[in-house]
Design brief:
Low-confidence stretches: 93-101
Strand content: 15-25%
Shape: globular
Number of helices: 11
Radius of gyration: 19 Å
Strand order of the largest sheet: 1-2
Length: 229
C-alpha cells in the first residue's frame, strides 16, 4: 500500500509542475517534439526542459526516438493522453461557484485533436449522432460497435477487425474538457479522424491542435450522420 501511495504521489507531482504540464498539454496533438521545441512552448531553458523530460521518461509518461541529430519526445500511449485530457475537465472549476463555468467558445473548443482523435463540440456531436443512429452503443467505460456500425465504418475503408485485434483500447470514452461530455477515442476514434482528414472533411494546422471543418466535411457528415454542424 505504501508503495502504491508513493507511486501515485510521484505521478501527481510530475503532472502538477507548471512547465511539465505545459509540455504535456502541447504533446496532446499526437506529434513528437524536440526538447528545444518543448522548452520554447514552456518558456524555460533547454537545460530545464531536459531535466523535466528526463523525469517524464523515467515514469514512462513519454517515449523518445532518436532521428539524426535530434531526439523526439511524444506521449507514451493513448491512455496517458486520456488522463491528461480528462484532467483538463477541472479547468473551469473555481471556489465559490456552484456550477461549472463553460470555457469561452473558440475554434479550439469547436474542433481539435485530442491525441489522435477528434475532440471539441464537433467531436461530441458526432459521437452522440453515432449513438443515436446505433452505430455505437454506450457501455461502462467504452463505446461498443454494433453490427450496423461495423458495416458503417467498413464503408469508409476503416479496418475494424484489425483495429479490434490491436493490443490497445479499441473504442473508449474520453471526457471532453470543454464540453464535459464524452467523445470517441481509442483505435477506432484515431482511424476515423485519420480518414476524415484524408478525405478533406477536416484540415489540420501547423503548431496547433485546432482543426478546420471544411464545407465538404459539413456536407458529408450531414449525409452520413444526419446532423448539421
Amino acid at each position: 500500500m505504501e508503495d502504491l501511495e508513493k507511486d501515485f504521489s510521484e505521478i501527481a507531482t510530475l503532472f502538477g509542475d507548471k512547465s511539465r504540464a505545459i509540455m504535456l498539454w502541447n504533446l496532446l496533438d499526437g506529434r513528437a517534439y524536440t526538447a528545444t521545441e518543448l522548452a520554447t512552448c514552456a518558456n524555460v531553458s533547454l537545460q530545464s526542459a531536459s531535466n523535466h523530460l528526463s523525469k517524464l521518461l523515467k515514469k514512462e509518461v513519454l517515449t523518445v526516438e532518436k532521428q539524426g541529430r535530434h531526439r523526439y519526445y511524444r506521449l507514451s500511449s493513448s491512455e496517458v493522453a486520456q488522463v491528461i485530457e480528462s484532467m483538463a475537465s477541472l479547468l473551469s472549476i473555481q471556489t465559490g461557484y456552484k456550477t461549472i463555468k463553460r470555457p469561452k467558445m473558440s475554434g479550439f473548443t469547436y474542433a481539435r485533436t485530442c491525441y489522435k482523435h477528434l475532440a471539441g463540440e464537433v467531436g461530441v456531436k458526432i459521437t452522440e449522432a453515432m449513438v443515436l443512429q446505433e452505430i455505437i452503443t454506450v457501455a461502462d467505460k467504452n463505446f461498443e460497435l454494433t453490427e450496423k456500425g461495423k458495416k458503417w465504418f467498413t464503408y469508409f475503408e476503416i479496418p475494424v477487425d484489425n483495429l479490434q485485434n490491436l493490443k490497445r483500447s479499441f473504442s473508449h470514452k474520453c471526457l471532453d474538457w470543454s464540453e464535459r461530455k464524452h467523445h470517441l477515442a481509442g483505435a477506432l476514434g484515431d482511424s476515423f479522424l485519420e480518414m476524415m482528414v484524408e478525405k478533406d472533411w477536416f484540415r489540420k494546422h501547423k503548431n496547433t491542435r485546432e482543426l478546420t471543418l471544411t464545407a465538404k466535411g459539413r456536407t458529408e457528415i450531414k449525409q452520413h450522420l444526419n446532423i448539421i454542424l
